[in-house]
């Protein structure tokens, strides 16, 4: 049958010989006759069983979807609460550090720009900013400084003013680093 078809489409003798060789390698297939069909899975005699089973599966799927949504919401709420607590803890730590620095005289309490600068620096890099703040010298006469109770060698209280020029030099170097840190944090 294929030979007649190939002759009809006008193949040359060489092409026809090559086609015959290829055709001979293909196993013969019977056309017609009885075909074997794969056996279909057994159908249930009642259509209601399939519908009931589908409804049960859909109900289970809906229940699992609701549980999944509830868990997702719960985890999202817990994540939000943890982030808010972390922010509140950080704000409290920063406020405590600023208050302590004000009390020690490391930051002038009345200078709001300076307080704001240190607050931003502590927010941007808490570890290094706290170390820098702790390294700053305390102002003379502030909490923890024993210079108020010093007396001269003759037993009278000392009335000499502290050397503010030394403290200003140290503070200017520290503030230079603070300002560089803030500039880097803002970029």
Secondary-structure blueprint of this entry?
Layout: H1 2-8, H2 13-25, H3 47-104, H4 112-124, H5 126-135, H6 164-186
What does this 3D model show about the protein?
There is one protein chain. This protein is mostly helical and about 190 residues long. The chain has 6 helices and no strands. The model is unreliable at about 145-155 (pLDDT under 50).
Q: What are the segments in which pLDDT stays under 50 over at least 5 consecutive residues? A: 145-156
Percentage of β-strand residues: under 5%
The ordered string of helix (H) and strand (E) elements is HHHHHH
- Give helix % range: 55-70%
Count of DSSP H/I helices: 6
Please provide the count of β strands: 0
- What do the pLDDT scores average to? 76
* Rg: 44 Å
The main β sheet shows up as: none
Q: How far from one another are the termini?
A: 82 Å
Based on secondary structure, the structural category is mainly alpha
Based on Cα principal axes, name the global outline: elongated
